[in-house]
Design brief:
Blueprint (H helix, E strand, L loop, with lengths): L13 E2 L11 E5 L2 E5 L3 E7 L10 E9 L9 E6 L2 E9 L1 E6 L4 E5 L3 E5 L4 E7 L6 E9 L10 E5 L6 E4 L2 E7 L1 E2 L2 E2 L10 E7 L3 E6 L5 E13 L2 E3 L3 E5 L5 E18 L7 E3 L2 E3 L2 H12 L5
Parallel strand pairs: 1-19
Antiparallel strand pairs: 2-22, 3-4, 4-5, 5-12, 6-11, 7-10, 7-12, 8-9, 8-11, 10-13, 14-15, 15-18, 16-17, 18-23, 19-23, 20-21, 20-22, 20-23, 24-25
Length: about 300
């Protein structure tokens, strides 16, 4: 059902207080994502694909996964390397164990976040700790500035109770990174100034979030549907926001909406990628592969 028809019962719309968005951004493009598999056969949808990396700089990839069929996820992601960027895994449901070559280990559970800076290089695994039930969540790849790509690896587990939230009538905004309505998120990044919100909006609620015009931004609707500046966003769609306006205005549909709002400052640096290595030049990629084969990653 189109969002434009969701209010035919005359429900009153609610707007988030202290709104400071005067000129909302419009939708530049809607993206459906591509069904694929990764790791040892985990089925997922690649929402932010490699061809969008320039447009959505500093973001490199967004995967959405969700299944209650163990065969779709049970093999997980055995040992594999990364260098030159950060991975942000946000679990809605399920249990996943992280181990890496830098000596970190943690259990990622429903509502929690795993933030890993691969930096100069790390080998890690992410394996389910359940034999049945729903496994659902997202993994975002966030690029690092050239000056930080060879920093030592870093890792942090954040349980659901550790994520700050902003609440208003009909709104819960989980602030994973950045800040929203005076609430500072769990993680801050100076180079990319990333904003990562998980929005839970009741029926008809209007949520405003200011955004710097130069920051690239997108919204991924994963429950219900929504409307952004008068245009409908169906479920399981990513709306790339135009870089005009002072923020985004999201209106929840009649059944309510859950969506990710992600934005960040573009690095405007060259991107060279070979699988799990993301650097600035091909020579740096060759070096990353050589270091991995020689066992020189952390």
């Amino acid at each position: 059902m189109a969002v434009a028809n969701a209010y035919s019962d005359g429900m009153d719309l609610q707007t988030t207080p202290s709104s400071s968005v005067a000129t909302p951004r419009r939708i530049e493009r809607l993206v459906a994502g591509q069904a694929t598999s990764d790791g040892a056969g985990v089925k997922l949808t690649r929402v932010l694909t490699q061809d969008l990396q320039r447009r959505l700089d500093p973001f490199l990839m967004l995967d959405a996964f969700g299944s209650d069929k163990p065969g779709d996820y049970i093999a997980g992601f055995p040992d594999h390397p990364h260098r030159g960027f950060e991975t942000v895994t946000y679990m809605l449901a399920g249990r996943m164990r992280h181990r890496d070559s830098a000596g970190n280990e943690g259990l990622l559970q429903g509502g929690g976040v795993q933030w890993m800076t691969a930096g100069s290089g790390v080998i890690h695994s992410e394996l389910p700790e359940q034999a049945e039930g729903l496994m659902e969540g997202f993994q975002l790849w966030l690029n690092l500035p050239a000056k930080d790509k060879m920093n030592p690896p870093w890792y942090r587990d954040l349980q659901s109770t550790e994520l700050p939230e902003w609440h208003a009538d009909g709104v819960t905004a989980r602030v994973i990174a950045g800040a929203s309505h005076g609430v500072t998120g769990a993680v801050q990044r100076e180079g990319t100034a990333v904003l990562y919100l998980d929005l839970h909006l009741d029926a008809g609620v209007v949520f405003d979030q200011p955004l710097p015009a130069e920051h690239n931004a997108f919204v991924y609707v994963y429950r219900g549907s929504a409307e952004i500046d008068g245009q409908a966003v169906p479920p399981q769609r990513m709306a790339i926001l135009a870089n005009q306006g002072d923020g985004v205005r999201i209106t929840a549909a009649a059944q309510g909406t859950r969506a990710l709002l992600i934005a960040g400052r573009p690095l405007k640096e060259p991107i060279a990628q070979y699988g799990p290595f993301v650097m600035n030049t091909q020579q740096e990629i060759f070096q990353a592969v050589e270091d991995f084969r020689a066992g020189r990653l952390a």
